[in-house]
Amino acid sequence: MERDGVWFEIDAVLNPDAELERCSLILEGVRELLTRVLDEPNLRVIASKLAHLRKRLSRVTVEPGAQTEQKEKLSVSTEKAVENFIPRAKYLTGTHHTSLLLGQGNFLPATSTPQPGPVDDPLTFRSYRNAAQEIGSWGITFGGDRKDDLAVFDFIVRINEKCDSLDLPHDALRRHAKLLFKGEALIWFRMIESSVSSWTDICDRLKEEFLPIGYYNTARDKLLNYRQTAGQTIGMFLAKFDQLEGYLPRPLPFDEKMAAIRRNILPYYQDRLWDKEIVSPDELYRLCRRLDATRFNIDQHAATQRNTKTATNRAEKATPTPDDASSRSRDVFCPRCKNTGHDVRYCPSRPEIKCFGCGKPGYKNYNCPTCKLQPGNGRGGQRQ
């Protein structure tokens, strides 16, 4: 085939082993470039090499067996390099249209003359020299906790969320990973530091080292048996369920996920939603929130009724009725006259007054005329 005066051999037979070896060398060169502090020209060179590597791998025809396995490994490694390259390009150039970089043939071509772009704008360019200070200011570290199965996942999720919110490339994490570890985890990282080339590799090695052996075999069963507790809202239950599902190597099939959620929500919801056809967790959330609102209104109404009844009972007790007054009067006993119906203070019977010395009625001892005249009466004798 002739093109622009140059003849191309379109039926050339490629040597698979030689092609795979060449692709492996190109990939090693890309990895080496990614370890450097990059500027825009270098980014363009890497983009061109990755695009060439993708295209070259796609046209290599291999035999089943070792060649196929080698090609698959190279393809996976190439995609990891692309995954590592994209955020760095965004970070350094301020480009937010990642579709220009993600397509197989859409990498920017290499050029010998740097083109002016957002990287020259001091307002949008951020130096890698500030990455260490930024990462250190987060205060997020992992110390190698083996007691909590989810500590590794929580650490990785928090770091990734920080990077996404700040548009910080994951390659900066690999460069400054020592700032993210302490204690036992830091000792472990020093051992594997030279054998990892990306943050993704570090995360994979973290899970391999600090997750319990056989975790993925039991994590699925734990998720299927995760139940909503009495004090947990439906929103927090669904959020926690999604978080635990994200820690699985593969998400649950949707039908199995919905069945597990409906089986593990509170019995109050299950009793009222058993006949409803619910097609998504969002729909389940809305229905459960309506039930919560209904239960709240019922509780408020019942509380109002109880308060009203209590106030009425207190008012009735504070106002005695004639029957109550007469009943209380009948219950009073007078010890003087031995009768009921009145208190001793109001008893109509008065005791007879008489002198306890001589027994003369109408007088007490101190004014009794008879006792005064008797000899031997100290008070009467003195008066005589």
Automatic annotation (TrEMBL):
Keywords: Metal-binding, Zinc, Zinc-finger. It comes from the Eukaryota. GO terms for molecular function: nucleic acid binding; zinc ion binding. Residues 302-330 are annotated as: Disordered. InterPro entries: Retrotrans_gag_dom, Znf_CCHC, Znf_CCHC_sf. The keyword Nucleus does not apply. Residues 354-369 form the CCHC-type domain. Residues 302-313 have a biased composition (Polar residues). This is CCHC-type domain-containing protein. It comes from Tenebrio molitor (Yellow mealworm beetle).
